[in-house]
Design brief:
heterodimer; A: 328 residues; alpha+beta; five-stranded antiparallel beta sheet; three-stranded parallel beta sheet; B: 171 residues; Ubiquitin-like (UB roll); DNA polymerase, domain 1; 2 domains; five-stranded mixed beta sheet; 6 helices; 5 strands; 16% strand; binds flavin-adenine dinucleotide; binds iron/sulfur cluster; binds FE2/S2 (inorganic) cluster
Chain lengths: 328, 171
């Protein structure tokens, strides 16, 4: 690990000021950043420790939603009574991620901003456009089994690895961000992430010095909540494919549905056209196939990850069967 | 670049001047000679380094010592002593919850904290309901302990030991 200076933020303005200095990095749970620093994939000059900031609370909002402080741990969020009762898909997604020990450290803000698990990104002996812009991408023709089939570019095919963010995407979450001038802005989670295009090193719309202070959830969505994660072993592994679904049935038809996907793309993936095709329809295998056709219309495999195309179709259909059969 | 950090470890206060890069795991093992806690992968992937910080289990390899100023830390050395073992330590011996023993300190620290999580009503990925009231079945124990790998695959003994310590009959 390279040498670095360490500072402990005492206020959010203190944190944004310190984090705005070139070469500095915010540290929360540290479970992703320290891992990457050990491998010298990330080598900040200064760590800005935000753990003493007052961002550990989960509170109801005025419009009937929930405000989740950026430092709320994945464990506390999954176990929170309101989340378990009203945002079940979020509890489920969190509990499907990492391990008990990691969830005790991992924070809400850090989970959103965790980096890809692409093996080339982790290996500083290999080129990687995300780690070193312009150096190339060997994953396209190499070991890409876990990598993306949607939203990729010729420069990068990495996936975003979070489970939590997939559930939050289905719940229409909004990220609250404070900048160096003390202004707070709200960014829909879908707009937080950038697709790789020609700049895969730019992963979000956040600017240097920006601090995530909270995630806001709107009012709970009625209906059945399901998170289904397919992975190489039944626990303690990242998703190959995951689906977050919230659906409500009415008189044998799908009255409302929201869907988000993990393991498929550089960001938690949502496609409103899929939801539109299902809404107002009576569930059937043909309808579910049609939904999968829309989701996968532009899917592209790179060899070792070709299997994700049929796997995501089957996983989506299985989830649709579950949420439409039991929530009549 | 170093920082003076004060930690309570197994009830004793230590003030150390540590390089910022020192993980909590390396502080315990290399600076304080508390070698009960083990280093397996050093990347959060095996659980050998599991300790309790402010009563919660974490991976000591993925956190920096300087971030823990004022924290209360318990390691395997603090759970019990050879003359006065904790219930979980006794149960691991009774049920052969290990072979080589390398993962054992992490398993015991993890299991000790896991039982508290289950008592507090935290659900798991295999819980059919999120109400946290389900029984601590073998399946629940395996899921909740999935952050601790055992290369010797002593899993059957580990699960039985945890069942016993939880007050359920192991079988
Ligand atoms: C072995 C292993 C298995 C895992 N399995 C899974 C899994 O199955 N599913 C899953 O979803 N995740 C998994 N994870 C990843 C884990 O969820 C993340 O490491 C964790 O959520 C990151 O949170 P953190 O608080 O530790 O972030 P940190 O490591 O502290 O930070 C991560 C990034 O976010 C930035 N950051 C943090 N907080 C803020 C903030 N408030 N404002 C601005 N920037 C901020 C940091 O600068 C850094 O770049 C796994 C990790 C490991 C090591
Ligand atoms: S897929 Fe992206 S992260 Fe992986 S090697 Fe290519 S550029 Fe790097
Ligand atoms: S040594 Fe910490 S998890 Fe393996
Ligand atoms: S007893 Fe050998 S690794 Fe678990």
């Amino acid at each position: 690990m390279k040498q670095f200076d360490y500072s402990r933020a005492t206020s959010t303005s203190d944190a944004t000021r310190a984090a705005s200095v070139h070469g500095s990095a915010i540290i929360a749970g540290g479970t992703n950043l320290i891992d990457l620093m050990k491998l010298e994939v990330m080598s900040p000059d200064v760590l800005v420790d935000i753990n003493r900031l007052d961002l550990h609370q989960i509170t109801p909002t005025q419009d009937g939603g929930l405000r989740i402080g950026a430092l709320v741990t994945n464990s506390d969020l999954a176990a929170h009574e309101t989340v378990r009762r009203d945002y079940e898909v979020l509890s489920r997604a969190l509990l499907a991620g990492a391990s008990g020990q990691l969830r005790n450290k991992a924070t809400t803000g850090g989970n959103l901003l965790q980096r890809t698990r692409c093996a080339y990104f982790y290996d500083t002996a290999m080129p990687c456009n995300k780690r070193e812009p312009g150096s190339g991408c060997h994953a396209r023709d190499g070991f890409n089994r876990i990598l993306a089939i949607l939203g990729t570019s010729e420069h990068c095919i990495a996936t975003h690895p979070s489970d939590m963010a997939v559930a939050m995407m289905a719940l229409d979450a909004v990220v609250e961000v404070e900048n160096t001038t003390g202004d707070t802005r709200k960014i829909a989670l879908d707009d937080l992430y950038c697709l790789p295009g020609s700049t895969p090193d730019v992963e979000t719309v956040l600017q240097r010095g920006d601090l995530i202070t909270a995630v806001l959830l709107p009012q709970p969505k009625a209906g059945l909540h399901v998170y289904r994660k397919v992975r190489d072993r039944s626990s303690y592994a990242f998703a190959l494919v995951s689906v977050a679904a919230v659906a409500q049935m009415d008189a044998g038809k799908i009255a409302q549905i929201s869907l988000a996907f993990g393991g498929l793309a550089p960001k938690p993936w949502r496609n409103q056209q899929v939801e539109a095709a299902l809404t107002g329809q009576a569930p059937s295998e043909a309808l579910f196939d049609q939904a999968a056709d829309i989701l996968l219309a532009e899917a592209q495999g790179f060899g070792a990850n070709d299997f994700k195309i049929p796997l995501s179709r089957r996983t989506l259909k299985a989830v649709l069967r579950t949420v439409t059969e039991t929530s009549q | 670049m170093t920082r003076s950090t004060s930690l309570t470890i197994n009830g004793e206060t230590h003030v150390v001047d540590v390089d910022h890069r020192t993980t909590l795991l390396d502080l315990l093992r290399h600076h304080l000679d508390l070698t009960g806690t083990k280093k397996g992968c050093d990347h959060g992937q095996c659980g050998a380094c599991t300790i309790l910080v402010n009563d919660r289990r974490i991976n000591a390899c993925l956190t920096l010592a300087c971030m823990h100023d004022g924290d209360d830390i318990t390691t395997i050395e603090g759970l019990g002593t050879p003359d006065d073992l904790s219930a979980m330590q006794k149960a691991f011996i009774k049920h052969d919850g290990f072979q080589c023993g390398y993962c054992t300190a992490g398993q015991i620290c993890s299991a000790t904290a896991m039982l508290k999580e289950a008592k507090a009503g935290w659900p798991s990925n295999v819980s059919s309901s999120l109400d946290g009231k389900g029984a601590l079945s073998n399946e629940e124990i395996s899921e909740r302990m999935s952050g601790n790998l055992c290369r010797c695959s002593a899993y059957t003994g580990i699960v039985n030991a945890i069942r016993e310590a939880a007050g359920e009959t192991g079988q």
